[in-house]
Amino acid sequence: MTSQSRQRTSVYWDMFIHPAFGDQPIYVAATEEGLCQITFPHEPFEYLVASVNKRVADAQLVQSMEQLRPYCTQVKEYLEGERKAFTVPVDFRGTEFQNDVWRELVRIPFGETRSYSDIAIAIGRGKAVRAVGAANGANPVPIVVPCHRVIGKNNTLTGFRGGLAIKETLLRLEGAGSYKAKGHQRYLF
Q1: Structural contact between residues 37 and 141, judged by C-beta atoms closer than 8 angstroms
Q2: How far is C-alpha 24 from the geometric centre of its chain's CA atoms?
Q3: How far apart are CA 185 and CA 115, in angstroms?
Q4: Best label site of 17, 30, 68, 104, fewest CB within 10 Å?
């Protein structure tokens, strides 16, 4: 099979704007298998393209409001306080370890938090706390795979791809109050 005849994978994308994120664009992408990318307000369309191309071989980005409607609708409902759980499929495309971490994140109930240590123990890799932090940071579908619910072992907010202000916004939206808004305390996982 030549590179020209190779089957390309359609990755559908769309964007929406929501006041929870300062009316900045949020890009959302999905394959036929499920959601594969959500960006944060500071991440431009080029970030979406680069991230999708890194994870999906031979990706062909296609803008489609229709294909993305269920994904965008559920994220908007969450941001408006009308949804506590997501039912859309997710197309996990990470390493085996990353996928284990991301599946564990989905198990954290709405309004609750866990530490990086808790996640490491839950996936049977108790000493892999920093690797859990790295997998958390590589999560391509934040909000739906709720990496914002992971905080430091000492209950402080820690690094977050979307920024600590967005992490705190999401935790407040869920009514989670068991954290200290002190900012990132490096290596306290």
Answers
A1: yes
A2: 17
A3: 13
A4: 17
> Average pLDDT in the 167-186 region?
75
Residues 146, 105: contact at Cβ < 8 Å? yes
The answer to whether 39 and 30 are in contact (CB under 8 A) is no
Structure confidence at residue 57 (pLDDT): 87
Catalytic residue among 48, 75, 147, 166: 147
Answer whether 142's CB lies under 8 Å from 162's CB: yes
SS3 of 99-148:
HHHHHHHHCCCCCCCEEHHHHHHHCCCCCCHHHHHHHHHCCCCCCCCCHH
Distance CA 38, CA 130 (A): 23
Question: CA-CA-CA-CA torsion for 68, 149, 20, 16, nearest 10 degrees?
Answer: -10
The pLDDT of residue 152 is: 87
pLDDT bin (cut points 50, 70, 90) of residue 185 is very low
Contact 78, 145 (CB under 8 A): no
| Closest residue by Cα to residue 49 from 41, 37, 31 | 37
